[in-house]
Amino acid sequence: MKFNITHSHFKAASPLLCLLLLVSACSPFKPSPRQEPVAPLPQAFSLYSEQEPDTGRWWEAFGNEELNGLVEEALAANTDILVAWARLRQAGATATQSAADKYPTLDATGDYSHTSTHDNGGPKRNTTAEEHAVGLSAGYEVDLWGRIRAASASDDYEFMATREDVRTTAMTVASEVVSRWLEIQAERRKKRILAEQIKANQTYLELIELRFRNSISTALDVYQQRQNLAGVQAKLPPVESNEQTLLHELALLMGKPAGSVTVSDADLPELSSLPGLGLPADLLAHRPDVRAAGLRLSSADWSVAAARADRLPSLNLAGTAEYSGTQLATLFNNWALGLAASIVGPIFDGGYRKAEVEKARGVVDERIADYRNTVYTAFKEVEDALVQEKWQKKYITALGTQHDAARTSLSEAVSRYTQGLDDYLPVLSALLSVQDLELTMADEQTNLLLYRVALHRALGGDWTDGLQPPAIETKPRETSTGNQG
């Protein structure tokens, strides 16, 4: 249905329009706050720390300036972070467009027509007519039921959620850079261990060959030690390969091509005391992915409000003001002013708008489940890191005890072998055990540091609040179609 209100009726309709504007400010479909928490959390973590929670740049506690620089460079150039910033710009533009619907539109108009007629039936007649017109055209939809406001609020929450996505990506990138740096240093440490093992095995081989020439050892002893030496040497190429691939991964994290990033040698940092954990409820504020899930749930709530309001009639106002004349000199001699209002209400749409409301409510249910999953995943990640670090320390202690026992066994086996009491097999077995444990302990000490990185990542923080968007390129890039000299 459609009704037109002329300029002469505007004065009589003004009280009704004022009433409609007041009704539109009420937002009858505003979402109701939830009474119960969507994802209740336990009161405390399984482990307790006496330290105060630190939500700053946790990697600086490792005390390596090169590592700090690598993280900062990655935060500025990582392609995933750049993509997240670009999506934030898109979400901001969408939110601005939605908010623009709350205000009137005003457009300038201009018309020109030229008509020429020629009549050959009687006396020759030529007629020429021109018409010039300039004016303004305004339009406004009265937000009777809060549909426009609800749609704008939904996009505002989506924009805020997208901003949290940027922070989530930054936290992930920072932890990945630190992890790769630790793994690179760990591979170099293993290379040093293998170099020492190769040297030790060469010394053992020289001793056995000397004893063989003196008819004290057997050829089998020589062959077994040569096999052991070759086995240790065979472990070196995979370590070299792992180091190079880790450097390639680090370069990608920093937004650079593989092979363009170098890392200086450094000792692995000592593990500090357990950082401040706070309460599980703090994850709701410190984890940007949790905040993003909550904001998207709010966005879905407002989408339901917009869909419900869209089932009711809408009121649109339109106004025009125009000057016209047959010549430019007389353009402003004639003017016209028009005002029109139209009410459009759905009568039959095949259930489209009702289905849209149901669809929006389905999205809310999805977002509730997603929010609960995000919260519980965050809690699980903290608990996983705490449990892994706790038992990893016990595991490393047990490995140390085993390593000490293996070295004692090796010393006794060597003593009995040199005295001619035993053959070389006990020495070889003890030597293999000691050297395998040395490599295992190096790996597990690195894993302990990686569990600490995972804990910092799981706890979140507010250090991402200071992130700055990349510079926006305002000028188009020049292209060339010819050959370049």
UniProtKB/TrEMBL annotation:
Keyword terms: Lipoprotein, Membrane, Palmitate, Signal, Transmembrane, Transmembrane beta strand
Residues in the signal sequence: 1-25
Chain segments carrying region Disordered: 104-127, 466-485
Tree of life domain: Bacteria
Subcellular location: Cell membrane
Pfam family, one: OEP
Topology relative to the membrane: Lipid-anchor
Keyword Nuclease: no
GO MF annotation terms: efflux transmembrane transporter activity
This protein's record includes keyword Transmembrane: yes
Gene3D superfamilies: Outer membrane efflux proteins (OEP)
GO cellular component terms, A-Z: plasma membrane
Family named by the database record: Belongs to the outer membrane factor (OMF) (TC 1.B.17) family.
Name assigned to this protein: Efflux transporter outer membrane subunit
Organism listed in the record: Pseudodesulfovibrio cashew
